């Protein structure tokens, strides 16, 4: 397939582009800067200049593709207002991509997050939470899956709280950044809450499988580690950085504090059985050993 990818130069996106190319696909990747365009070319893909807010560019990219994978999201948020803006921007982009594909039976694979279910690990059958700081993302993904009834082979790859590579990425990466800045490797509450995780290279394989195989309207879990306790994550970060490890207020994490404090393990049993996905790369706790002081 000729695949249009948004977010193709990020930690996850660069792994997805490499996986698609290795699988025999060609890639057109959205690039919002000259540096991103050069990175896309260096990876062996074709850049399409534009940003997530450039809806005409998104339409053009989707129109010339056999399938679309959406990964872009503005993570440069530090307040509820900037987070809401990023969520709204992504929602507009997804609506545009989906509308362009209506009636074509082409695949549209979007990224989502694993849901939080009190008392147990979430599964692929659980609905997304449409309330809270990032509820708008869930509503946008739900709308994409609804396009299955309008001739779009839409699917969602639900990503865990940490998608990592070489110790960087996801919620664990944010803990590392905050630890460097504050001098304490912190965790909210008592740290017994569990976060699921996956290596970026393993997640990339699942995006390719969803593009190639997923039935319309389906959701899949890119979960390798069902749930590591956050205090164990913080302990590795503290040891690698030579910093003390301690509980800190949830407010330390800004608009994500409520999410950081929640217990949210997740399962991928159905995904592994149905799509034959099998994670092979290091676990989160193993990968965090790559953090450099």
From TrEMBL:
Domain of life: Bacteria
InterPro entries with a match to the protein in the record: Epimerase_deHydtase (IPR001509), NAD(P)-bd_dom_sf (IPR036291), NAD(P)-dependent_oxidoreduct (IPR051783)
Region (Disordered), start-end ranges: 107-133
Species the sequence originates in: Streptomyces cylindrosporus
Domain NAD-dependent epimerase/dehydratase: 3-73
Signal peptide segment: none
Protein name: SDR family oxidoreductase
CDD domains named among the record's database cross-references: SDR_a7 (cd05262)
């Amino acid at each position: 397939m000729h695949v249009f990818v948004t977010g193709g130069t990020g930690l996850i996106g660069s792994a997805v582009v490499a996986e698609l190319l290795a699988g025999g696909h060609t890639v057109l990747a959205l690039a919002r800067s000259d540096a991103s365009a050069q990175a896309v070319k260096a990876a062996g893909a074709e850049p399409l200049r534009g940003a997530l807010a450039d809806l005409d560019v998104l339409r053009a990219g989707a129109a010339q593709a056999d399938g679309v994978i959406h990964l872009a999201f503005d993570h440069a948020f530090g307040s509820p207002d900037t987070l809401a803006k990023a969520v709204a921007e992504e929602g507009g982009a997804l609506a545009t991509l989906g509308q362009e594909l209506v009636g074509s039976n082409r695949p549209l694979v979007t990224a989502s997050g694993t849901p939080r279910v009190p008392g147990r690990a979430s599964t692929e059958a659980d609905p997304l939470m449409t309330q809270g700081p990032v509820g708008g993302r869930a509503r946008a993904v739900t709308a994409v899956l609804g396009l299955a009834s309008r001739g779009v082979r839409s699917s969602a790859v639900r990503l865990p709280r940490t998608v990592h590579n070489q110790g960087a990425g996801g919620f664990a990466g944010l803990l590392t950044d905050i630890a460097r800045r504050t001098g304490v490797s912190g965790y909210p509450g008592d740290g017994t809450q569990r976060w699921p995780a996956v290596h970026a290279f393993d997640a990339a394989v699942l995006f390719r499988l969803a593009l190639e195989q997923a039935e319309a309207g389906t959701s899949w879990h890119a979960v390798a580690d069902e749930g590591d306790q956050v205090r164990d994550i913080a302990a590795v970060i503290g040891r690698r950085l030579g910093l003390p490890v301690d509980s800190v207020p949830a407010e330390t994490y800004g608009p994500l504090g409520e999410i950081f404090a929640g217990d949210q393990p997740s399962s991928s049993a159905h995904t592994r059985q149905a799509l034959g996905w099998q994670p092979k790369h290091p676990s989160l706790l193993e990968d965090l050993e790559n953090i450099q002081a």
